[in-house]
Amino acid sequence: MMVEVIRNLHRRTLNHHIIINYRSRPERDYRIEHSQMKSNFLGTLITVAVIINDGFAFVPATSRTSARLKRMKLSSSYQPKHVLFSTAEQSETDTKKNAEVGSKEDWLESDLLAKLENFQTSTDDVVHPMMEPDMQLLDEDFVLTTKSEIENDPALNLLSSELSVWKHLRKNPLRSDGGLPLDIILQRTWDTVEDIWQHLRRIPFEKGWAELSSESQLTRKTVVVLGSGWASHALLKVADCQKLRIIVVSPINHFVFTPMLASASVGTVEYRSMTEAVRAANPMIDQYIEGKAVSVDVKQKYVDVQLNSLLDGLVEGTPPTIRLDYDHLVVSVGSRVDDRGVPGADRALRLKSCDDARKLRTAVGECFEYASRPDCRGDSVESVVERTKRVTFLIVGGGPTGVELAGELHDLFEDVTRKHKGTYPNLRGNTRVILAHGGPDLVPQFEPALRQEALRSMKEKGIQVMLNTRVMELGDGFARLSSKKVDPTTGIILEEREESILPLGLAVWCAGTAPVPFVSDLLSQLPPEARYSDGRVKVDRWMRAPMEDKSLLGSVIVLGDAAAFDEMGDGVLLPATAQVAGQAGAYVARLLSRGFDLESTPPLLPCVDPEMQNPCDVFYDPQLTRWLRFRGFDFSPPFRFLNLGMLAYTGGGEALSQVQLGDVPILSVAGSVSYLLWRSVYLVKQVATRNRILVTFDWWKSKLFGRDITRL
Fold first, then answer.
1. pLDDT 10s digits, 29-85
2. I want to staple 564 with a disulfide (CB 3.0 to 4.6 A). Which of 3, 38, 230, 532 is the partner?
3. Which stretches make up the FAD/NAD(P)-binding domain (predicted)?
């Protein structure tokens, strides 16, 4: 009987608009159009559009529609018993009411429909006090604003009990017994199957056995991808180039496995072993243009590109600027090092690209040579002090990059200063690595136990760690530091600071990032709410940038370090890491390849209703549509990040490993066992078999013959 009641209610509400009001945050109002209510009935759960005084609201909807309410956090995995009956947070009175209603299913449908018919409607252009100013009530809108109407009515109380479930699940999300996010894992598994099929379909075109038809080439949407980092590379790997005409614009013609830049900067691995050319990532992309975007017009949908200067010194003239039209612009331009406010910070080297690693590798070798000159040889105090200064390396920033670089430099020094076998045995005992970090803990992204293990490992290797320390100035051969004082008796860190001068030979800046100039130009054309406080672009749950003109929604997608993404709607942004960027890039590739209408919210799969009067457009793929509808994707699911954990090398054959699946910890370990895991994961995560073979060879080569410090 209950199922029939729900079915009938579902049919009765198909042609109505529902107003959702969120009392405590009135700017979060939504209208669910009737087209969004026409999904399959399978798993339908009905609730009533209610507004109660503690600030929660719910709507008549299918379970899928509930999952699409992007800021309400309703789980699509609800089972009927969770919604229709009591939960742990419900009062005893509510439980009795629900039991009473459960025994009166014969009158539930008529009573509830009567309540729906008696809801106050308005035919005037009236703005509800908690609605957005530009949102008008329609004739079909239901608005219920009194709490007593719900509490005093068993039927409404029963159907509004989803409130308690929602509040409970915010604290205790529905998962398996082990707490694993099985819904995300299942979704990623099916996505992987889809990606494999896509790669198999690509083989005949890559081998030259088949060519795209002229019709396909004319109807493909143009997607301009800015950048060649993690997000862009993941997008290229997954995108269906039979449906998308992809143009990649980047001043760098390759993808870099950035976690191994520290290893490349000291010669543990070679640069080419951890890179992949843009064109090799997906041979079916339409074009790669070596240059950088300098301006964009989001209304006219074009981007201006300044081409790189090639054959410098051989070809005269300034490289031209070209204009590219697009249907979708994917902005994944990365970030730059944030060293603002520190005089002389431009003297420090960086570690964000292969060019940075090459410069650092050369500079390290030059420091060794500089410290080996005759003017500082000998055992006098002055000679020892000067020699030590020339091979003192300051690393600014105690995140994973800074810690890994400190560990790699330690290994290099141990290698090249070995007696009889090392290249610079005379420098043994003079080399210093100093790690300055502004916070109280190294690698704050890791759990506390691993942070302490990182500190212990650094100190054990002789690496000097300076916590709660800021770099105030970098000069020629020195750094001015400001550190918090420590009480000598209690060991408590005080708020008072003291300054010191550190003589050094080389500084590497691994602290902080900031948006690149192109992001500022893009934000100048977006509405004010698109700007996050740190200058990044706020994106919605489908990675779309906000637009003044709603018809342009979905034309600009922002990924990676340029995007500020609040997955849970609680103000906490996802970190700007390679893992987040890679998953988001693959997600957007599927979103575009599947043909979702990005102008609608949530994005709608085209031609999902066989009874539609409007014909399907040229992008309609009946086989793909059936597959996606089988998966329940009449509407695109939002992006959901699956955290797999973090790894960091600390030197001396030791590493930190924090392995997790979502929020569920799997393994936290440090030391040599973690080092094996670190190497295994980094080897597997290489983007191609070629890279895995080359990296393995480099590791064996550096182990057998030592690191090559030749400066070329």
1. 333 333 333 332 222 333 333 322 223 333 333 333 333 333 333 333 322 222 222
2. 532
3. 222-585
